């Protein structure tokens, strides 16, 4: 029998090295951990599976033409939570693996047990595997947040993948939850649970279990101090969908985002409010972000972005103050700092604002980070409003992308955004001229102001 050897594995990226290194190739320091590698002999099942695949039996492996492959259709399971269905692309696909991550206490276990209760009531048996909490703790949470019948919801406090596979084979659930993958381990490996080797091995076992038995599996994962998924990146490549649950623990708003989805779009977001009875869906997210906006406030301008299949209205706040040190500060929350510096340069060069001795602070109310560039005009007007002391109307909305020449570029889905703004009570919308010209049936109660550059936008805003 061959002697087992040891390798050093980076706990951040999964890189393996024969010798210990202080700094990994990914840049992480002191992340190399020594792990044993089991030898693969001729009697090992792993060797038999490789030889049985056609590599040593003389069978020829042939490729298939793409035109000859039949298009497969997949059915989805309704989780009973509309916002979760929206982010997943319409529901859970059978046989899919979904990875959900978030900071401790953000509500990951709450949303999955609510979804598990709904699926158990509609489709049949659901297996909830927990390596962090006891069955009594899960029962207490279930009694608090679940309203339906939990007869078909089965709990298993276990961390061994062999025992989990045996219970799954016997129970044959319609849906399965692993909370969390960092606590699971395979007895075949000597490394501790949560190590790169264990996470990789357990991820492969869960993928095989879900695909072969056609069971959708929810996998909960921890995050690092920087907010990224803990463990090797290979887990993110294995799964079909990667969800991230974010929000401030001292606030009620929770945002569910999708970073990867093989069965749908990644541009959708789901909004929830953490209540005593669990997570409650927020149907009108724009109203939530705009409810604290004051009419006639300096440095506050409303804008809109298009997230997935719905427009989302936001409030941009800006504050300028004389700097007390040699260099002016540029601070942005929700907006890319490089984008903010570009907009400040355009305002100085094209609009004549002298901001070199001004500290500039920009904030997107609600803690959301909008994607795209349609918020450029609102950010610029908010900075102008704060710097000049110009009072902004709470019924005015601005959207558009600003180029380096100071001109305004058109934004997508502008017509749908205008309709949503009209429904929310806005009476004036400043937008690029191209979007105004392309508007087929503008609402009667909204005044559309088309502008070509930042100077025209400032004159119309004033």
Automatic annotation (TrEMBL):
GO biological process per UniProt: recombinational repair
Span of domain RecA family profile: 73-223
Region annotated Lon-protease-like, chain positions: 359-462
Keywords: ATP-binding, DNA damage, DNA repair, DNA-binding, Hydrolase, Metal-binding, Nucleotide-binding, Stress response, Zinc, Zinc-finger
Motif position, RadA KNRFG motif: 260-264
Keyword check for DNA-binding: yes
Residues forming coiled coils: none
SUPFAM superfamilies: P-loop containing nucleoside triphosphate hydrolases, Ribosomal protein S5 domain 2-like
The UniProt record lists the keyword ATP-binding: yes
GO molecular function: ATP binding; ATP-dependent DNA damage sensor activity; damaged DNA binding; hydrolase activity; zinc ion binding
Source domain of life: Bacteria
Annotated Gene Ontology cellular component terms: cytosol
Residues annotated for ATP binding in this entry: 102-109
Similarity section: Belongs to the RecA family. RadA subfamily.
Description of its domains: The middle region has homology to RecA with ATPase motifs including the RadA KNRFG motif, while the C-terminus is homologous to Lon protease.
Job of this protein: DNA-dependent ATPase involved in processing of recombination intermediates, plays a role in repairing DNA breaks. Stimulates the branch migration of RecA-mediated strand transfer reactions, allowing the 3' invading strand to extend heteroduplex DNA faster. Binds ssDNA in the presence of ADP but not other nucleotides, has ATPase activity that is stimulated by ssDNA and various branched DNA structures, but inhibited by SSB. Does not have RecA's homology-searching function.
Entry-linked NCBIfam families: sms
PANTHER family the record matches: DNA REPAIR PROTEIN RADA (PTHR32472), DNA REPAIR PROTEIN RADA-LIKE PROTEIN (PTHR32472:SF10)
Protein name, as recorded: DNA repair protein RadA
Species of provenance: Aminipila luticellarii
Higher taxonomy: Bacteria, Bacillati, Bacillota, Clostridia, Peptostreptococcales
């Amino acid at each position: 029998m061959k002697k087992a050897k040891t390798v050093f594995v980076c706990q951040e990226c999964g890189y393996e090295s024969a010798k210990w290194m202080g700094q990994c190739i990914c840049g992480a320091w002191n992340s190399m951990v020594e792990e044993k590698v089991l030898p693969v002999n001729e009697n090992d099942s792993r060797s038999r599976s490789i030889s049985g695949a056609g590599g040593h039996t003389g069978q020829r492996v042939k490729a298939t033409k793409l035109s000859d492959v039949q298009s497969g259709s997949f059915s989805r399971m309704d989780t009973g939570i509309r916002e979760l269905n929206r982010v997943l692309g319409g529901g859970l696909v059978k046989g899919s693996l979904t990875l959900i991550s978030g900071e401790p206490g953000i509500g990951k276990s709450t949303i999955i047990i609510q979804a598990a209760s709904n699926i158990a009531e509609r489709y049949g048996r659901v297996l909830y595997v927990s390596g962090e909490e006891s069955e009594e703790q899960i029962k207490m949470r279930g009694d608090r947040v679940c309203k339906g019948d939990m007869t078909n919801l089965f709990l298993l406090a276990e961390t061994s993948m062999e025992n989990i596979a045996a219970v799954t084979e016997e129970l044959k659930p319609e849906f399965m939850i692993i909370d969390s993958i960092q606590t699971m381990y395979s007895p075949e490996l000597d490394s501790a649970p949560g190590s790169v080797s264990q996470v990789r091995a357990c991820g492969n076992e869960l993928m095989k279990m879900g695909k072969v038995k056609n069971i959708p599996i929810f996998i909960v994962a921890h995050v690092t101090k920087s907010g990224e998924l803990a463990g090797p990146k290979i887990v993110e490549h294995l799964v079909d969908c990667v969800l991230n649950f974010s929000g401030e623990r001292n606030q009620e708003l929770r945002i569910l985002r999708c970073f990867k989805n093989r069965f749908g779009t990644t541009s959708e977001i789901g909004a929830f409010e953490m209540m005593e009875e669990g997570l409650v869906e927020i149907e009108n997210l724009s109203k939530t972000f705009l409810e604290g906006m004051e009419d006639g406030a300096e440095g506050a301008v409303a804008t809109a972005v298009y997230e997935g299949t719905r427009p989302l209205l936001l409030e941009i706040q800006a504050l300028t103050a004389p700097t007390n040190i040699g260099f002016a500060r540029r601070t942005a929350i929700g907006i890319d700092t490089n984008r903010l510096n570009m907009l400040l340069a355009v305002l100085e060069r094209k609009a004549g604002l002298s901001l070199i001795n001004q500290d500039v602070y920009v904030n997107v109310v609600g803690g959301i980070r909008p994607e795209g560039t349609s918020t450029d005009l609102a950010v610029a007007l908010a900075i102008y409003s704060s710097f000049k002391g110009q009072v902004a109307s709470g019924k005015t909305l601005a959207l558009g992308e600003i180029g380096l020449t100071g001109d305004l570029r058109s934004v997508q889905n502008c017509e749908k955004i205008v309709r949503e703004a009209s429904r929310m009570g806005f009476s004036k919308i400043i937008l690029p001229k191209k979007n105004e010209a392309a508007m087929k049936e503008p609402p009667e109660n909204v005044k559309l102001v088309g502008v070509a550059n930042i100077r025209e936008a400032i004159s119309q805003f004033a």
